[in-house]
Every structure is written in C-alpha cells, then in structure tokens.
Amino acid sequence: MSDTPPTVSAVTATPHQLSFDELETPLSETTFVVVDLETTGTNPADDAITEIGAVKIRGGEVIGEMATLVDPGIRLPPQIVAITGITTAMLVGAPRIEAVLPSFLEFAEGAVLVAHNAPFDTGFLRSAAARMDITWPSFTVLCTVKLARRILTRDEAPSVKLAHLARLFAVETTPTHRALDDARATVDVLHALIARVGNQGVHSLTELLEYLPDVSAHQRAKRSFAADLPRTPGVYLFRGPSDEVLYIGTASNLRRRVRSYFTGSETRTRMKEMVALATRVDHVECEHALEAGVRELRLLAAHTPPYNRRSKYPMKGWWICLTREAFPRFSVVRAPTNECLGPFRTRAAALESADALATSCGIRTCTTRITRGEPHGPACPPNTVRDCPARAVRSEVDYTAPETVRALWRGDTDEPLRVLRTTMEQLSDARLFETAARLRDHTAQLTHALARMQALAAFAAIDEVVLARPRQPAQDKTGSSADGWEFAVIRCGRLAAAGVAPRGTAPMAVVNQLTLSAQTVIPDDTPLRGASPEEVALLLRWAREPDCRIVSSTHGWASPLRSAGAWAQWTALAVAGATSAL
Question: Which residues in 258-412 belong to E strands, given as ranges?
Fold first, then answer.
C-alpha cells in the first residue's frame, strides 16, 4: 500500500478482450476485475472511499493489480480505524477520488466487475461517478456473496463472509480489511467457486451468472439439444416422447435462448416440467425477428402445444355481425363475415358492445323477422325480449340503421359514439351514475375494438407493401450504424416473404428477388381479408416503428377519416375511470 497516486503493475501483457454478447464466451477467456473498497461508513451518499484495491485476472492468471489510498476529505471515525487499521494520518497526501476513479475505470474497462457483496462496492463507485458527472459504464457485475450462497449449502458454509470462505477454501491470501488483500482473497474464492460448478456443466460467463442449485443434473445434461443450433433468429420447437410439439418460442439467438432452458435462468415450474419431458428441439431459421414472430404464430395455430398459454387459437374469438336479412340485426358469432366487428375475447364483451351499438344506432336487436309486407313491422312479442342483446324491444324499424353501423365500422362516421357520449352525460346529469358507468365501460370497450379493427383492416387492405428497417449489427444491438437492411413483403395482411440485404449488397436487387418469389395470397371478403388478427397486428407494429420505411406499395395506407382512433384519449380516460373504481 502507498499514499501515492494509484499505480498499476502489469504482471503479463493483457490479451485481446473478447465480447460478452455471445453466451458461449468461456470462463477461461473472460477477463475479471476483482475490486474491494475501504470506506468511512456504509452510506454511499454520506460516506467516502478511503482505499481501492483491484486485481485483473484471466484464465486463472493475474494480469494486473491496482492499489491506492484515497483522501476522503474528512477525519476517519474511530470504529473504521479499529477495523481497517487505516488512520487519518496515513491519508495525508493521498489522491482524491477525482484522480483515482478515472484510472480505475480505465483499468476495469471491458472486464466483468467482481466484488464480495458487490452492491456495496459498486454503490460507492457509482455514487462517486455521479458526483463527478462521469457516466457509469455498463459493467457486467458478479457478486461472490450471491454466488457462494447459490453454490454452497448452509451446512458447509453457515456464513458467506469473506473471512469464513477464505478459511473454507484455504486461500493463499488472508483477508485483513485492507483493499488489495481482500481483493486477492476474493480472487481465490472466485476460482474455488468456479471450480465447484465446472463439473456441473457451467463453462461460460452467462451460465455462471444464471447458475442456480435447483437445476437437476438431468435438466443440465439436455444442453446438448442446443449444441447444433445456430446463433441466428428463428423459432424453436420442443418435442416430446411421441414427437409431439410441447412448446414453441422465438429467439434472436436460437442457441442462446434454448440453452437458457437448461440453466438456472429458467425458474418457471411449468417450463421445467416441459424440459423434463422433451426429447429433442427442432428449429426454423428466420431472416429476422419479424419473420420469426409470424412463423411462431402460424406454428402455434398448427400444433396448439400444451405448454404455450397464448396465441394457440389465433382465429378464435367473438365477432359482432350484421345478419344477411332484408332488415339486418346483430348476431354474435365465432367466425367473421364480410360485415363484422371484432374479435372480442369473450362472448360477454361482444354482447355488451352490441348492446352499446344498438343503443346508439337504433339497429333491430330482437329475433322477430320483419316481412316486406309490413314496412314498419309488427310489435315484438313479449317473449322475445330475452333474445335482445340491448334488452329493448323496438316496434319500428330504422331503415338507415344498418348503413350507419357499416359506416361506423368502416370509419366513415363516429356519430354513434357521439350519441353514446351524450347519453352518458344525460344519465350522469340525472344522477344515474351506475347506469352511466356501465355505459361508459361498454362504450370504451366498443371504441377500443373499433380502433383496433379499423387500423388492422386499413393495413390488410393493401394488396402488397414492401417494408424495410435498418439491420443492427449482431455484436452491437445498441449501435447506431446499420448493418444492412431487413425487408418484409406483406400481402393482404400476411407476411409473404422476408429477407435481408447485408451492408454492401444492393438492396433493391434483394427486394426484386423477394417480391418475385413471395407467397401468393388469395384474400376473402372479411374485414382482414382472411388474415389472422394477431399476424396483422404483429406486422402493423413492425410497420409503425420509427425507423421503418415503405419501399413500395400497391396503393396508399391511411386510417379512415372518422376512425375510432381519434377517440383514443377518451378511451384511456374511461378505462382509467373504470380501474380507479375497482
């Protein structure tokens, strides 16, 4: 130790540092910087650092050390002097943290930061960086206290204090509450802990960070399922003993994602059960994440795997339709028709929205058929009241009501929504607050369904649109420079082709090839032209990203003039009001 500015002793030449973006970075090729601090107290906001000790290691070898006392600018409390042996006199002439911290950050750059009780040490370092207006680097941090508690049983290690672990593993350096000595002892403890899990298949940095003791040997042994998977975007399928599909998922890196199921990062009981049943993993490589998402939806619909909870039935839902009669009425059905609104998740939600529509449009809701010989229709018999979604019987027919409903669904008018809002205000003025609240909730549900349907239908109405987004470099997902382009050819709301143009490749040549080889799509006359609502929604989200560009389109893409999207703010307020009332 010295009271001079920080010194760095290079034991050996520092090898080239590998990237940590890859899951397969071996521990033997990972650079660690083990750091320990001595401080004037335990609160980073009020106390200060008095000593920093750090050891840089790689492949089990020490490649550098850093040690310095730090002048905190205050007298040391007696209890700190008693613990560390550092006195105020020893700190006279020592550098301030403003001179030390930049040197430490340079020393630790590109390495995994390790500390015993890491939140304590990193908390003081972060606080010092904040006071100096220095941006704290995005270090990967490993805490040997947490790692020891995961690896060692309480019978073996009742305490995970550094001194106890040093005695347990018989390390060469004894902790002394001085920074460099404690950092050296932590290095030996880290190596001992890594040796403990090495025979359990933990050989990479990510596996070490995710290690949990309750991962069975049988589960960890199935890591071989991911051995031949590529590090590319795609869809993976876990298969069971009878070759049935158990689970389907997507990944930006297939090997990394599948391997995570065989480590401690997977804590869901349901997934552990699935992994125990799995006998192999199939995969489908994709050009980019959008194609992977679409293929996942289609495979979920085809296989309905038991361990997936969402999107297994993309075409199922409840739709409000106008019946094909001389005087149409509302009907809630499972399959969409050419004149419908939906899908709703439950039949009750569809009936409530039909009720609100009937209230505002004057549509016939009873089941009695009106004959052409009776233009105004007979009065509905009393026993038909229970069949009316609006719970109201109408004796006269508004011949314009069906067209009003169609115009509302197309987005050509929002007058029925205005009628509902006026009705709510009238009910509220009459102090019928519960009735007004029910109508508010039903109207909010209706406007949300309308806005979603109109947006999806407008996008699905385009016969063909080619979209492009910048492709981020594989090793730097946060980088600003694009590594080429990702393309999607969308026809009638369905993904027909996907591809990429790496940097240096003429993008339009790729686009021309994609459009020529794209899937042929035959639409129907339903609002989404036969496409799955979930697939259209996924494509629409991709198209709405700020960096997405339209390369070509058969015709314009626009929302209807009077679409319910303009009611988004009102809908949000209505939903907030309903939530606050719970």
Answer: 280-285, 318-322, 330-333, 340-344
DSSP bridge pairs for 499: 487
Quote the Cα angle for 84-89-93, to 5°: 110
Taking a C-beta distance cutoff of 8 angstroms, is the pair 278, 238 a contact? yes
Task: Supply the angle between the helices 118-131 and 97-108 in degrees, to the nearest 10.
Answer: 120
Dihedral of CA 513/516/519/521: which sign? positive
Two structure tokens written together for 315 = 């075409």
Kindly report, residue by residue over 147-178, the tens digit of the pLDDT. 888 888 888 888 899 999 999 999 888 999 99
Q: How many helices (H) and strands (E) does the chain have?
A: 18, 16
Asked about 116 being catalytic, the answer comes back as: no
CA–CA separation, 515 vs 535, rounded Å? 19
Strand residue runs (E) in 146-294:
234-239, 245-251, 280-285
Q: Which of 257, 239, 252 is nearest to 292 (CA)?
A: 252
In 343-479, which residue ranges form alpha helices assigned H by DSSP?
347-361, 401-410, 415-429, 433-460
Q: What is the pLDDT of residue 198?
A: 78
Q: Which CATH number fits domain 215-303: 3.40.1440.60, 3.20.20.70, 3.40.1440.10, 3.30.365.10?
A: 3.40.1440.10
Residue in 16, 116, 164, 177 annotated catalytic: 177
Architecture per CATH, domain 7-206, reads as: 2-Layer Sandwich (3.30)
